[in-house]
Amino acid sequence: MSYNHNQSFFMLLVITLSITSCYVIQAEARRLLEVTIPELPKPEMPQLPEIPTIPKPEFPEIPKPELPTLPKAELPTLPKLEMPVIPKPELPTLPKPEIPQVPKNYVIPAEARHLLEVTIPELPKPELPHHPRNPNFTKA
After folding, report:
1. Looking at the record, which segments are called Disordered (predicted)?
2. CA distance 98 to 95
3. Rounded CA separation 21/27 (Å)
4. pTM to 2 decimals?
5. Which has more confidence, 35 or 59?
6. Chain centroid to CA 129: how far?
7. What DSSP string runs through the chain?
């Protein structure tokens, strides 16, 4: 419990110190703006000597290399091949299957009736754990 009091005290201390330090910085900056700086005399720079000009070098021209032309090779023409014609295979036509009609008043045999009956197993009902009740507690 005392830990919470110490924590809030330290938080208050940090906030107070940060506020006072910000004010000091602003006051110092204001003093710096108000101070006048004396003007210093400008030093005279000695004149530099003139740099002599250097003549631009001239390089001899180099002839561009030329690649020799290669003779074009003539390729022999190949004879055109004729593709053999393959006849399309003919599939025999299949007869359309006939679906037998089921009569409207069809009776299911007794041996097959048990296949139509669906039985759902009954699961036991889950029980919630019993909590002890306080006899002194009354509902309002």
Report:
1. 44-72
2. 9
3. 10
4. 0.17
5. 59
6. 49
7. -HHHHHHHHHHHHHHHHHHHHHHHHHHHHHHHHHPPPPPPPPPPPPPPPPPPPPPPP-PPP-PPP-PPPPPPPPPPPPPPPPPPPPPPPPPPPPPPPPPPPPPTT----TTTHHHH---PPPPPPP-PPPPPPPTT----
* Residue whose structure tokens are 């048990």: 114
| Rounded Cα gap, residues 10 and 16, in angstroms | 10
80: its two tokens: 């055109």
Amino acid residing at 19 = I
The answer to whether 108 and 116 have CB atoms below 8 angstroms apart is yes
108 Cβ contact partners less than 8 Å away, ≥ 6 residues apart: 116
| Tokens encoding 20 | 């006072």
